[in-house]
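Design a sequence for this backbone.
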């Protein structure tokens, strides 16, 4: 997202995070911009029963946890490394200086936040008004439009558990629905991977 040379120039520090390490907790004060170099991170909320709802999954080249930096509020979700992860951390004041000094980066940053907002809106609509089949296909089609080629099959790089956490559906329902979608010819399954 933001070129690493710029991040370093503005004082970002490199951090090596072990798998399963919590980077920040829901309710912590937001004061740092995080950008992933390698590995992946999930942002999630946990309900009173201990069930996780994943707000987003982020990988190399992506940042996470930015919105509360712009309104001086607390993080609305927790962030945890899903695998060994290398990231850069930049203090909020330095991020703002960087964005003021580099309008092209600011514009790309705004576009990225807008894209995420549109995704959240789509997922909220899906969760509130559609069945599991429709939710799963919508998520897969969204991923394909983001990371694949519309005319080619794409392997979905999510586990059944991750789909469950992203859509707020029980994992058993995801497993059953994926099998049903395969029977209906909506998706293919090869070596436990979903293709569409």
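Sequence:
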């Amino acid at each position: 997202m933001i070129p690493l040379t710029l991040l370093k120039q503005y004082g970002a520090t490199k951090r090596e995070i072990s798998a399963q390490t919590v980077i920040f907790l829901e309710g912590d004060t937001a004061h740092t911009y995080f950008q992933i170099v390698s590995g992946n991170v999930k942002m999630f909320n946990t309900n009173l029963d201990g069930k996780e709802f994943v707000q987003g999954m982020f990988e190399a080249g992506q940042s996470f946890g930015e919105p509360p930096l712009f309104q001086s509020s607390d993080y609305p979700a927790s962030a945890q490394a899903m695998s060994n992860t290398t990231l850069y951390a930049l203090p909020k004041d330095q991020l703002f200086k960087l964005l003021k000094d580099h309008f092209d980066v600011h514009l790309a940053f705004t576009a990225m936040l807008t894209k995420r907002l549109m995704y959240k809106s789509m997922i909220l609509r899906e969760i509130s008004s559609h069945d599991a089949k429709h939710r799963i296909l919508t998520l897969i089609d969204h991923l394909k439009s983001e990371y694949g080629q519309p005319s080619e099959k794409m392997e979905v790089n999510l586990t059944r558990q991750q789909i469950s956490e992203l859509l707020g559906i029980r994992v058993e329902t995801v497993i059953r629905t994926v099998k049903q979608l395969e029977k209906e010819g909506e998706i293919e399954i090869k070596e436990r991977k979903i293709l569409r």
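The first strand starts at residue 13 and ends at 17.
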